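Pasting as-is:
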Amino acid sequence: MDLLFQRGRATAAEVQEGLADAPSYSAVRALLRILEEKGHVRHEQDGPRYIYLPKADRERARQSALKHVVQTFFDGSAEQAVSALLGTEGARMGAEELDRLAVLIARARKEDVQ
């Protein structure tokens, strides 16, 4: 999906070329077919080739994936997910980033009170 979001459209061969440690061409085609069945991608026919395009916009896909990760690995707890992110090595945040997070937290508190 990431490759399709970056490129906007790609053939199965182009997806395979863009993957590190890429699986076989038939495995890439099978994965794209599954993603299409699940409604994540669509295809257009260009002669004998299928050109794959993301069906959902990136923001909606991001929200869906994040919700799934929080539910699966953090028992639905945003607090646990944020705590894990903050505790991850290499995820050190600067003052500006922490300030932006503080604003988001304050906004969430305000919305929760109303």
